[in-house]
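Request: How about a record?
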Amino acid sequence: MRRVSSKTAAAGILVLAQQNGAGAQDLFYSLEGAFTSSADEHRFFVSVPAGLASFDETRFLTWHHGGGTNLAGDAIAAGSFDPKLRLLDSGGALVAANDDRFTGFILDAQIVAPGLAEDTYELIMDVQSGAVGGPWALDLLGDAGTEIKLRADDTAGSGSTIGSLKFGSRNAGTAQIRVADGASLTVNGAISVAHIGFDGLPSSANLTSSSGGQVSAVDVDIAPGPGSTSALSLITGIGSILDVSNNFTVGQTGSAQFLILNDAVVTVADQATVGSGGTLRLQDGTLRAGTLHHSSGGIFTITGGASRPERSTAT
């Protein structure tokens, strides 16, 4: 699969949006990946709108040196490289930086940024010292009322890759990933939309790709658990592509809708599953899959000039 690079004309846009009371820190993104050398770095471009209160926090933290359980509920092994984080504003001025969020032998980094002003910020994760690369794990956590656009870019020449992306809400907010026009986002593992994190609270999240946007992943799971929802996940526009090299699931146990619109193409190498809580709608779009599995209670509809896989099963 292709690595997302800052040389790309337009980058994948991840959008976090909260809409309930202040201070809840509802939305999370958990990313895992790897550096191949000590020269690698990963850059994330974060756009923050006006109107954040002074107590609304945006938090970035790593897990891969000391280990622990990230916000997605995954166990992160200890012993990888010592990271550092820097947050810059659009003019390149340093807003915050951190090397060690704990004293002693745990050298993970954390930035807590309350009340960020409206701007586009750049978060840089790289190697602090004595490392030759290795796995990384980064969480992004937002307070209620914030809307954050995260562009998942590497720097030119960096060997950093994204291995998994799991995101959702921990309360009543809705997290979103939007892949902008002509942008691309590659995940060399699973994308989990409306993922229920470590605390087991209901989760809501959306995945949207605009005209010409491209998303590649090994597996895509939309609303993977009870209490998880994805109100409107869609691939839309001529040239928009979702390329899944293994399995694609909509609403296996949660509630989810996935729309393929306007000549967009979703290609699934193995099985596409519409679960009992899922809705899959083809409207002038194309779904290509090794097998389409349609569970009882799931909804599958075709309108316009849409096309679907020939092989299908039902339970």
